[in-house]
Amino acid sequence: MKLPSLSLLVDAFVGALRRFPLTMLSAAVACGALMWLVEDGSDDAGVKMMMPAMLGLPLFTAITAFGEAFELKGWRFWAPQVAGVGLLVLYYFQLDPGITNFENVYVPQYLGFLAIAHLLSATSPYLKRGRVEDFWEFNKTLFANFIVGAVYALILYAGLALAILAVDQLFDLNIDSEIYVHLFLLLGLIFFTAFFLHHFPQDYETEDDEYTYTTVFVNLCKFILIPIVGLYFLILYVYGAKIIAMWELPRGWVSSLVIGFSVAGIFTYLLNYRLPAFDSTDAVRLYHKWFWPVLLPLTVLLFVAIGRRINDYGITEERFYVAHAGLWLLAMGLYFLFSKNDNIKFIPLSLAAFILVAVAGPFSANRVARRSQVTIIRELLTKNGRFDGTQVQKRTTTLTGEDAERIISAMSYLESRDALGDIQSWLPMHYDSFPEADDNYSYAYNSASRIAYWLNIRQFTNITSDGKENLNLSVNKATSESYTDIRGYAEYFEINVMDSRNYSEATVRPKRYFRLSTDKAKMVMMSNTNTQSVPVDSFSMIPALQKWFAEGANGYLNIPVENATIELQGQKHKAMFILRDGNIYRKKDTLSIDYMNGILFVKPVK
User: Fold this and answer.
1) CA–CA dist 411, 422 (Å, integer)
2) pLDDT tens sequence across 154-174
3) Per-residue model confidence as pLDDT tens digits over 106-130
4) Which domain holds residue 150?
5) Domains of the chain: total
6) In 290, 534, 544, 553, which residue has its Cα 20 to 30 A from 122's Cα atom?
7) Domain ends where: 360, 390, 407?
8) What secondary structure, in 3-state letters, does 143-179 show?
């Protein structure tokens, strides 16, 4: 592969700038914004600049190709370009990367718009004209140029990066490592874009004798893509047979596999679309004929798997996208199964339409998921006597268990989408105004959990399945600075004792260590000799356990660091224990340690 010369690079840049000025401007703005983010990754202004600029790359390419293909002149050619600029400017001003739901709502929506713009750049010259063969040849050329341009960019990056590294090491220049990221962005956005646009087809019609299949494309389809897709589909069909034989519902992640393999299969189908006219081998011919009929049963497997997840946990954006993709695959399969035209333009155009529905409007993933979670909250509150049809009802009895977890999870989901307003009409006060929870209840850390706390709904219960009352201990190190006098203590131990630990004399290495007593209420100092381990002394934890249970509430106790030091008395030694964290139980007034972690200082009693 021969790298482009400097003159070719200059010609490519100038030609791309003349033919696609707004696309090149978008590339420059995106490159500058990303470089800005490399220097200051927390700058929201850089994100606001980068997102519309990246969207402008495929958008202005699509608009320009549309104008050229339809031979628009003068203001007719530039009016859509100006409209595109206006849309991106409006999009810039409505972006706010600092809001709560930006990552969960606006980023997926942006990715959807980006995908639609790329699909339009592949179809805009053929929206109302052109043969399917011309459309296929056009996109084959784009794909080939994309691969070649990416390889050139990577080779140039490797060469220039090594040159910078050599100069840095030989002359001790201490060059900032961020220069390598800046170089990657320059080549990826400026060089690659100019190279790709320089080779962008100018003739949108192809003569029959110009249709070609290079050896690379033939081998890629016949010997790599078709066998791999066939293997994937075989695996899924075997798994489907297992489900039928054992009569069990499929696992949720099967949906993702079906979508992933289907995307690979459709990509292979598009590359293989014209290949039967050049290669009559059985693999090529059969794949072209049977791909869509083979895909349809797998969409049924997808719907069963994702339907199970939706039935159990409701709709989220991720589950909506999976189900929505399944609908698109079903539509594609039915179209190519019953249509006599087999127009492959239907694939990108229908995909763009499906994506638009998924990311914008009343039936978007976000809107549908919010309605689903609101329904779950209403049904569970009603079931547990905390909703009368118009207002939530506070109860004295505590609701725990699976229903409580699902209510809190659904409300937290709404809060992460800035959508707690969807249930505001049920609440006696604004959703941000509910009182803070008790200091010992650490789970009420957001508006959703404070609403649940007010309704006496808890994420957990402090009563275990075997009837033990559980108390989790933690030390709040942020409350204040603390000083502990350890003068006179002879030994220091890192303590991590637990009920479930099974000590083996063969594996105990330290000469002295600690373990729990049989009643799980004492810490026993052990001495390890060459032949056995023997107890040296023991320290009762009962006074400390009683004190902690008296202070704890709702299964949790957060101890200030200055109160985390405990003095212990043994028969032969005195000890001072500094707690880090732990877990203790009480059953029928019997106190025991589940685990205890901290630092222990020991000195002999005189």
Assistant:
1) 10
2) 999 999 999 999 998 888 888
3) 999 999 999 999 999 999 999 877 6
4) 1-212
5) 4
6) 290
7) 360
8) HHHHHHHHHHHHHHHHHHHHHHHHHHHHHCCCCCCHH
